[in-house]
Amino acid sequence: MSEIGPEDFQEVERSTLDREQTRARLEGWLAGRLPEGSEPEIPELSSPSGSGMSSETLLFDARYREDGQRRQASLVARLAPHAADVPVFPRYDLDAQFRLLDLVARHSQVPVPAVRWLEGDPAALGTPFFVMEQVAGRVPSDIPPYAFGGWLFDAKPEERQRLQDATVETLAALHGIDATNAGADFLAFEVAGDTPLRRHVQNQRGYYAWTASDGVHHPILERAFEWLEAHWPSDEGETVISWGDSRIGNVLYEGFEPAALLDWEMAGLAPREVDLGWLCFMHRFFQEIAESVDLPGLPDFLRLGDAAACYERASGHTPRDLLWYFTYAALRHGIIMARIHRRSVHFGQAAWDDDPDAVIPHRPLLERLLAGSWSPLA
Fold it and tell me: CA–CA separation, 205 vs 207, rounded Å?
């Protein structure tokens, strides 16, 4: 960790997409979706900076004719990555993401972008995609990490507290959706396992096997799977709609209140604590990096015990086995970071170390968790 510095947080190459060609093709596709005579125009495409790297996200303003007048809509296209771009995940089910956003909007007050169209035919842009409405707001940055500085770092303590509580409350509201009555069964992982948590972990085993299919294995991650089995929760509790990537870098905030939850490609059915553990682990990930370069970070922000207490107040549910779920989050993120390193190698931005575990930046934290020498609840 001591070798990581702010200069190491560069934008990872995301794709080889031809932006101008895509703009023209998207404009033509939109003409077929809008009423005849709309004459849509898309002047330019842009991408959000500072967070996200698993899918191609394109922001654009569409100008079109309606009722004899020119109108404009601010939209977002979410594209599945091309195989040649070394995707972070083995599968991108855009249909499920589209359906889930619509489900959450219909069955709760949880803020999500309104979805417009789903295009499953790769002929249009070369890959499946869906289009949703843009939501105004600001996002805590991943690159450089918000724990290094920026609007959240500069906020007053009470403002950060409000953001933390509002985010946890929104997470509780998501989990309050009746997954069965809402028809969320399409989120179930189609893998072996007699409970949703067993299937969730088995799905991660498959993800790790796919990541390591190039022959490079990561002993620290394999040890973490063994630790999970040895410390399995005795009561998995209620199964809910799990956002999966429940971190503040995937939230658009208006002031310090969530305006939209973004990035649902890791969603599934799981116990409530999967999201809560991920939310707090992801902050600890950035906090450890800040401390490693002698920056203060935000040590009192998103502490697991505080977030759990807020969640209980908001939901009436007492979170259980938090150390297990925090460690599970560390393992899941470790697999992602191992895959992202492979992307960086592919695009010439990184090389392999003799120690394959060296590419997992939170390895020291994961080692302390497995050894029992540190607890997020301390």
Answer: 5
- Residue 47's nearest CA partner among 7, 13, 91 is 13
Q: Closest Cα to residue 322, out of 258, 272, 259, 248?
A: 272
**Burial label, 311 (beta-carbon count in 10 A; 0-12, 13-18, 19+):** buried
Residues 129 and 173 in one domain: no
Task: Supply the range of the domain harboring residue 214.
Answer: 157-371
Residues of the chain with pLDDT under 70: 1-16, 49-54
Note whether residue 204 is domain-resident: yes
31 and 168 assigned to the same domain: no
For 20-42, the pLDDT digits (tens) are 999 999 999 999 999 999 999 99
Active site residues: 245
**Is 314 found in the same domain as 256?**
yes
Query: Within this chain, do residues 21 and 54 fall inside the same structural domain, yes or no?
Result: yes
* Cα separation, 85 vs 103, whole angstroms: 30
Express each pLDDT in 72-121 by its tens digit. Answer: 999 999 999 988 889 999 999 999 999 999 999 999 999 999 999 999 99
Domain count, the chain: 2
For position 54, what pLDDT does the model report?
A: 67
Kindly state whether residues 206 and 129 are assigned to the same domain.
Answer: no
Report helix, strand or coil for 77: strand
Say what the pTM is. 0.94
